[in-house]
Design goal:
Blueprint: H1 3-16, E1 17-19, H2 30-34, E2 40-44, H3 50-58, E3 63-68, H4 71-84, E4 89-93, H5 96-103, E5 109-115, H6 133-142, E6 143-153, H7 156-168, E7 172-174, H8 190-197, E8 203-209
């Protein structure tokens, strides 16, 4: 961490952050943590928090949960939250699968976002990719009916895999015919800008949870 990130961690982590491995058994009590009842949106892999902070600022009506394993990234997100005066963001450090399996109730999330997950571009590493049938099934079960699963990637092969996996999940329905139009509200990050320079096109997928 930088000095500034470390100070932000000391100031704000006790209020805004939790370690997934240290959560009490059972579903996360978001109403108490946010001090209000509101729809909960989960972002998996918030990185350095640039997109997370801006989207949370644009949707103050949402309780915004960000889960990430990279500690300096969470600290940088806390810096952004402090600077922007946000009170609708909470941070979780640890394994998203453990979080979803043990601490997120079924049918409880208004939305899940996974923007630009690690593409593991080499074919022999594709099995390490986050978006796999079992994980998508778990995500779908945690979405409330009508809730959305929004993915984005700049790797064509991964985008095609995402589309195939999501389309095969019976609890999900594609809101569009194939790729979703790129939402104007999704910020262009430095990584997406770099991808454009390198000739890679970003693709979005937005699926909706259907009733059982």
């Amino acid at each position: 961490m930088t000095v500034g990130q470390g100070k932000a961690w000391e100031r704000s982590w006790p209020r805004w952050g939790r370690q997934v491995a240290e959560l009490p058994a059972g579903p996360l009590d978001t109403d108490t943590w946010f001090d209000r009842a509101a729809p909960v949106l989960l972002e998996i892999g918030s990185g350095m928090g640039e997109t997370t902070a801006r989207l949370a600022q644009a949707a103050p009506e949402l309780n915004y949960l960000a889960v990430e394993v990279y500690e300096p990234g969470l600290a940088q997100l806390m810096l952004r939250v402090e600077e922007m005066g946000l009170d609708n963001v909470r941070l979780l450090r640890g394994d998203a699968v453990v979080l979803l399996t043990q601490h997120i109730a079924a049918d409880s999330l208004s939305g899940v976002r996974i923007f630009f997950p690690d593409p593991w571009p080499k074919k022999k590493h594709h099995k390490r990719r986050l978006v796999q049938p079992g994980f998508v099934s778990l995500l779908a079960s945690r979405l409330a009916p009508g809730g959305t699963l929004h993915l984005a990637t700049d790797w064509e092969n991964y985008a095609e895999q995402m589309l195939e996996v999501l389309s095969a999940e019976p609890l999900l329905r594609n809101r569009f015919d194939g790729w979703a139009p790129r939402p104007e509200w999704r910020p262009v990050t430095k990584f997406e800008s770099r991808a454009r320079v390198e000739g890679r096109i970003s693709r979005d997928l937005i699926f909706e949870r259907v009733k059982n």
